[in-house]
Amino acid sequence: MRPQRTRRGHLASRHVTGWLLAAPLAVVLLAFLVLPIIMIVVVSFWTATEFSIVPAFSWENYEFLLGSDVTWRVLLNTAKYAVVTWAITVVLGFTVAYFLAFHVRSQTWQTALFLLCTIPFWTSNIIRMISWIPFLGREGLANSALLSWGVIDEPLDWLLFSDFSVILAFVHLYTLFMVVPIFNTMMRIDRTLIEAANDAGASGFQTLWNVVLPLTRPGIMIGTIFVITLVMGDFITVRFMSGSQSANVGRLIQNDIGLLQYPSASATSVLLLIVTLMVIGILLRLVDIRKEL
Amino acid sequence: MRTGQDLELIHLTKRYGDTVAVDDVSYLFRGGSYVCLLGPSGCGKTSTLRMIAGHETASQGSIVLCGTEVTGLPPAKRGTAMMFQSYALFPHLTVRDNVAFSLKMKGVDQAVRHKRAGELLELVDMTRYADRLPSQLSGGQQQRVALARALVTNPQVLLLDEPLSALDPFLRVRMRTELKKLQRELGISFIHVTHGQDEALALADEIVLMNNARIEQAGPAREIFNAPRTEFVARFMGGHNVVALPQGRFALRADSVRLAQNGTEAVVRAVEYQGGHVALTARLAGDQEILALIPEGDFYADPKSPGDAVRLAWDEGRLHRLQA
Amino acid sequence: MRTGQDLELIHLTKRYGDTVAVDDVSYLFRGGSYVCLLGPSGCGKTSTLRMIAGHETASQGSIVLCGTEVTGLPPAKRGTAMMFQSYALFPHLTVRDNVAFSLKMKGVDQAVRHKRAGELLELVDMTRYADRLPSQLSGGQQQRVALARALVTNPQVLLLDEPLSALDPFLRVRMRTELKKLQRELGISFIHVTHGQDEALALADEIVLMNNARIEQAGPAREIFNAPRTEFVARFMGGHNVVALPQGRFALRADSVRLAQNGTEAVVRAVEYQGGHVALTARLAGDQEILALIPEGDFYADPKSPGDAVRLAWDEGRLHRLQA
Amino acid sequence: QEIKDITLRQFGTGVSNLNEVAQKVKEDLGFTLEMTALDSDAVTQRAATQPDSFDIADIEYWIAKKVWPTGNLQAMDTSKIANYDKIVGIFRNGKLTPDSTIAQGTAPHTVGFTSGPGGTDFVAEESGWMTLIPTIYNADTLGIRPDLIGRPIESWAELLNPEFKGKASLLDISSIGIMDAAMVCEAMGEIQYGDKGNMTTDEIDRTMAIMTEAKRAGQFRSFWKTFDESVNLMSSGEVVIQSMWSPAITAVKSRGIPCVYQPLKEGYRSWGGGIGLSSSLDGMALDAAYEYINWYLSGWVGGFLMRQGYYSAVPETSKTFMTANEWGYWFEGKQAVEPITNPFGDVLAQAGEVRDGGSFEERMGKVACWNSVMDENQYMVRKWNEFIAA
Amino acid sequence: MNPRPRSFYVLAAIFGLFLLFLYGPTITIAILSFQGPEGGLTFPMRGVSLHWFRDLFQEQAVGDIWGSFGRSFVLGLMVMVTTVVVSVMGGLAFRKRFKGSAVLFQLVIASLVIPSILVSLGVGLIFSQAGLPVHWASSGFGAQLTWTVPFGLLIMFAVFNRFNPAYEEAARDQGATAWQTIRHVVLPIIAPSLLGVALFGFTLSYDEFARTLLTAGSRNTLPLEIYGMTTNVTTPVIFALGTLTTVFSFVVIGAFLLTLGAASRRRAKAGSDAGRAV
Ligand SMILES: Nc1ncnc2c1ncn2[C@@H]1O[C@H](COP(=O)(O)OP(=O)(O)OP(=O)(O)O)[C@@H](O)[C@H]1O
Ligand SMILES: Nc1ncnc2c1ncn2[C@@H]1O[C@H](COP(=O)(O)OP(=O)(O)OP(=O)(O)O)[C@@H](O)[C@H]1O
Ligand SMILES: [Mg+2]
Ligand SMILES: [Mg+2]
């Protein structure tokens, strides 16, 4: 250690150690994120035969993609799933987080209830997805329960293989991604603010609306980012739960991949990427993730 | 001398599981007075205050304000208002909206509530900052906003939990003057929790000194300082020596002890300069420690250092007998 | 009167981007003395201390300890040790392991380092608690552990950043006595950052009063209190009035002002009881406010209330001319 | 290196990638066969893009049309295949019997041979170099739940019968699904196809238009993509009529749920599978692979698969591994004389029952078209996507 | 303690329903896994037995559950360890606010939000174009990291936002080197959060489907295997697997909570007279 280290030397070392520490992260992201994305963009300009991809520049994929009204319909459908799922998860997630943060008093219980929520996720998603059929199907648990309670006379068809079931599965899968960031933000709300509101005569609901909700906004934003991206990128849930009857962008991509149409899949991917990044870009303007964690 | 504005605690008790935080406390807070709840950490000050405010339910006993029993009422229905220790300003609302918050909750029109908020900001001299967010204010400014917010509901009693502890010492002294002035102007009761005896002495018409979940002594500030009932009070208020004599235990004010030619022999243990005075701690024979508060001029005429032998004297008349 | 143990700051400057936190400060801390760095919030006390400790690099200037330039050395190589404001005890280590931490880092045997840690815990009277975790200690106990940990490296200078601010007032007074005693026993320098002038007066052999990133005045505690160089010093140290007279501005100690039959006319603004004294604020003609510190006995012989007309008097000799 | 140290990695769909086969290989041949089951998309994708990740590809003939030109597979010398001559005609010259007509679509023999080692083309005649060795094949038709339908079903057109609104299903693998759709449209008399296995864009448009209309009207409960999905749809009663694979029907039946493989007057849609060798296979491993192929055709596997309702490429050899009762029931379409069980011991038919669709000749002789890859494949895929998104 | 308000019971009921909803499939799975040998994947139940649990430990007609479970488990551990290491290092790096950290942060966010299938497709393409063999432990591993590492990093941000830098300064003051500071002070203090990151990394990897789909190579991970198994008749054996997984998770988490409880009780005991003296 030199006794007279200059200020510059110190500064430089900060950047150097910073990069050294960040190197593994940078390598992972570069190799498995940046390069693949570049590859996708490049391939999206190639053409394909039945069985292989031809590295020749062409606008063909985009021409078709942007020219087809299927693209737009599917995009719209994707957006619909994202928005509806978001709306439900935000309400549900907020409620659950609110309960855990403000009504469960001991930290041990909070942890325990949280873990209880995560246990179903240890069972493979595919298995859980398959099990929705016996749960929601015509002869499934839900229908037989409703029938036996006399709520309905005939099994409900729309419980399964419908937009309802798709959204249901999304909500099932992703609500927790909303709960966690909202809970995290709520735990950082100073409890005396609630008392102050109480003191000012606010009812429980007024406190919720005027104090808790505004202060939870960053958490909601982060949860929104998770849910929106997860739903937009999904392909397996839509396929299983709609009985292959509806499509989202992810399914278009997967279909193309299945048929070895990589350039076309890449073009669709680029479209999805742009849309996703735009949405997230807007959301990120509303919240500083790093500060809010 | 009861008035219509009195606040009375009747056999008030608060338990948290096994801990008894407030133990069967009865007290009458006279309307329009500045009362300090004083005591060491954990003695139950905050619990008492929060029960009065309605943020904590009483385990037993009742609270009567202006002749009405308020024990079971929600905070906003009691005629009390609370100013929180860290102010608890809503970070997402401007100063004006913070002050107008309770009016908004009542459904008061925006124009009306802004006008009223303006008046209160005027009162605490914060009109200029009405559009700022709390995070853009200094500690002292935040405190004034909190004050305005608490006062907007026209409470009969304002409850303050360590309102000055977040301020630096300089500001603390300034703000306490303002608090006192405001209380006098408004003519309502302030109940102020603190664990600083200097703060309590400076502010309070009446001090309620708590210890171990009970009231140890209550009365006007001077009475508490000059006539401590127990050793605990004497020690806690500071500036006192507790002297054990054959007749019993006595409190002896440190400023009544002087260095003298003929007095009890002692050895200096520590010397602390305190501006106008010097606090000299000395040990008498028999391990009794005595604190003498000596005017600066007198001390430096013949300065002493730890280890020096001195003689200490006091008037017998200054000894105040302690009951416990 | 330099000794081998001196700590010298030479044209020390610290910039954070555009803010200048410490501006070209030069000062000689004499070895073995208790120095308080005093000043209002944001004046650069912490920055100075952290540069001395080596936790912050100096933007300019140098630091010399015991004749060695230490400006570029890492904290542990400087012969300084730091006690942090919130103590920064390692929460996962027992008290003993906290104290022995630096020895462990040096690769000292467990037996040896436990023995040494035991000695230091003995010194701060914490032997009983050696196996506890920091979270199981009270504030004052934590502080002693932090002290023991800082001292285990045998530093020449101990740096303390607001060591007493996390304690309640009762404990604060007790701990400051202990700090002072310890410093005297060890004979090393303590540099203690505080923004409480009472704390500084009570503890310091020497006070360095900072303002706006510079040293405003430095010297023995009494000198600072009795001979403030500037209005800022007089106001900050408290207990002073600043009087504007045709000849210039003067500092006038509040305890030199008395109520008299023939004196300047004034109106009482506020009265604060302070135990032995009463602080009376009055306004002279011309909007000048004067604070008078009146012995309790004198005041209550003829008590005044806000609004009363009084006459104030002081000896001309007590006026101390201010340079700025 | 000994043969028992060799490991061959085989992948395919779960239809034929059965662990019992691997076990038997270990017993009979001594080397290890590692089986990986994938869904049909992943099978194509892996065969076409990851030649190093397998030694043996178990794929379908129509997929071969896509995969073979990549050069990821190597041609097989028929002279090294003992039972080559006994392979049924379908896979050699396209004819089941010398006077059969060749069905529409990608008939296996059209993609079964290449010009020689290293060839990436297809040749029409038996060149001595095979692309895939045929393993199993079958003819598919509609599966129905007779208990829930309660009347005879005779035509593909019934799939779009409004009577089954919300209770019909179709296969969502575009190349296969469109064939079924075409069978339906043709049966309805709406469209007359030149070649259902190689439609014109106009034919594709019209087919999809009819299907889209039906979909919008709520005809379909669901589409299915994997074997298992079709079984679940049928056995849970979600669907009463759907295009289905013969063994899937068998699987539904084995749970005691009535389900019929319904022969229809328009004939069957057929498919065949085969195994191909990775081009990176050589030396001893290649020898082992040939050994495996010869073993495969030698009868045990054939019998094993036949008992599940598939047909073996070399029925003659399978016969020796089946009882007369089994052979009669599965192959000859005769009444069972004793209960028929699948290889896992589940009873599929009682004495006296006959197999739906009858004998081998009756079934395979009435193939209307083969699963195929069309010239307008890309166009068709896009239209199919539109249909799904509709 | 104040009595619970009415809203508590309403919210508790909602939470209960939410739990029921979360466990809906799990419960269905549990019920159906106890069917008799004739059982299928759907209702009505066909008999009651432990047949499928026994069957789970025998070879299946198709696929290799335990082999793929083993791979998923190993991959999960690899991802877990790497995630912890990379995100701790990353978390430490970001505290230094080095040049270019903003860009790297954007990348981290991008990695989090980019649809999984794109990563799968892209990594698959890269490997195939570069002629590298795809393998679950190389390309599959990497593809999963693009998901787990950003998550881990976000957790580390949260942790370091709350981490008092005075601890590190104290350590440095005590003569600890940079490495010793991390080893003896930072890591032990953040250890509980690391446990969280590890658990998270493992879970995300263990159940990852999309990112592994095109990157797993010749051998399947468990989710792919289960998916592959659906190309033949799948039996309630996968439900038995699900039930067993759930039971196992309950045991693990129960043990975890018990340890936590025991630790805090032990601590409470040791410190029972804290605050009395001084
Ligand atoms: N929510 C609670 N649960 C359990 N015990 C509590 C709770 N709040 C306070 N206590 C206990 O009750 C006693 C009195 O607490 P209280 O907060 O009223 O003291 P305080 O006088 O305000 O102290 P401080 O000066 O430290 O604020 C303490 O022993 C405390 O530990
Ligand atoms: N890390 C930093 N980055 C930027 N500015 C800083 C930083 N640390 C301190 N400052 C600024 O430098 C000035 C001096 O800060 P310093 O912490 O030394 O003050 P202080 O005298 O210790 O105040 P306090 O009594 O509030 O602790 C302040 O204006 C502060 O805002
Ligand atoms: Mg309190
Ligand atoms: Mg500071």
UniProtKB/TrEMBL annotation, chain A:
It comes from the Bacteria. It holds the Pfam family BPD_transp_1. Belongs to the binding-protein-dependent transport system permease family. CysTW subfamily. This is ABC transporter permease. Its main location: membrane. The keyword Repressor does not apply. The chain crosses the membrane at residues 21-46, 81-101, 113-136, 156-183, 220-242, 262-287. The keyword tRNA-binding does not apply. One of its GO terms (biological process) is transmembrane transport. One of its GO terms (cellular component) is plasma membrane. Residues 75-283 form the ABC transmembrane type-1 domain. InterPro entries: MetI-like, MetI-like_sf.
UniProtKB/TrEMBL annotation, chains B, C:
One of its GO terms (cellular component) is ATP-binding cassette (ABC) transporter complex. One of its GO terms (biological process) is quaternary ammonium group transport. One of its GO terms (molecular function) is ATP binding. Residues 7-237 form the ABC transporter domain. Keywords: ATP-binding, Nucleotide-binding, Transport. It holds the Pfam family ABC_tran. It comes from the Bacteria. This is ABC transporter ATP-binding protein. It comes from Rubellimicrobium rubrum.
UniProtKB/TrEMBL annotation, chain E:
The keyword Transport applies. The chain crosses the membrane at residues 7-34, 73-94, 103-127, 147-164, 185-206, 237-260. It is found in: Cell membrane. GO terms for cellular component: plasma membrane. InterPro entries: Bact_Polyamine_Transport, MetI-like, MetI-like_sf. The keyword DNA-binding does not apply. It is a multi-pass membrane protein. Gene3D superfamilies: MetI-like (1.10.3720.10). Pfam families: BPD_transp_1. Keywords: Cell membrane, Membrane, Transmembrane, Transmembrane helix, Transport. Belongs to the binding-protein-dependent transport system permease family. CysTW subfamily. This is ABC transporter permease. The lineage of its organism: Bacteria, Pseudomonadati, Pseudomonadota, Alphaproteobacteria, Rhodobacterales.
